[in-house]
């Protein structure tokens, strides 16, 4: 969104209504759900990149670095699952 030549970022907060939810309070997301959705999205989106990082490290003969990337990938996968659980509980 542009305002007077400058780019203005819109940030959702629990004190502001969620866009496209209208005036129905029941249509508003639970507090923090947008943050959980964002974290889940980014945790899942990074998976293919981590896979490439593991392959690159292995191709370079760096098993310790490949193991590190595998650990990060597993942690992000668990993080995404936990977000899903929280979102299910909030709905």
Task: Summarize the model shown.
The protein is mostly helical. It has helices at 33-45, 47-59, 63-90, and strands at residues 2-3, 6-7. It is elongated.
How are the elements arranged and paired?
Layout: E1 2-3, E2 6-7, H1 33-45, H2 47-59, H3 63-90
Antiparallel strand pairs: 1-2
Task: Describe the 3D structure.
The chain is mainly α. The protein has a domain at 47-91. Helices cover 59% and strands 4% of the residues. It has three helices and two strands, in the order ββααα. Strands 1-2 form a two-stranded antiparallel ribbon. It is elongated and about 45 Å long. The chain starts with a strand and ends with a helix. Mean pLDDT is 79; it is low at 6-18.
Beta-strand share of residues? under 5%
Counted beta strands: 2
SSE string, helices as H and strands as E = EEHHH
Count of discrete alpha- or pi-helical segments spanning 4 or more residues: 3
Silhouette = elongated
Percentage of residues assigned to helices: 55-70%
- Name the structural class: mainly alpha
End-to-end distance, in Å? 30 Å
Overall pLDDT? 79
- Provide the spatial order of strands within the biggest beta sheet: 1-2
Rounded to an integer, what's the Rg over CA atoms?
Answer: 19 Å
In terms of per-residue confidence, which ranges show pLDDT below 50 for 5 or more consecutive residues? 6-18
Largest beta sheet, briefly?
A: 2 strands, antiparallel
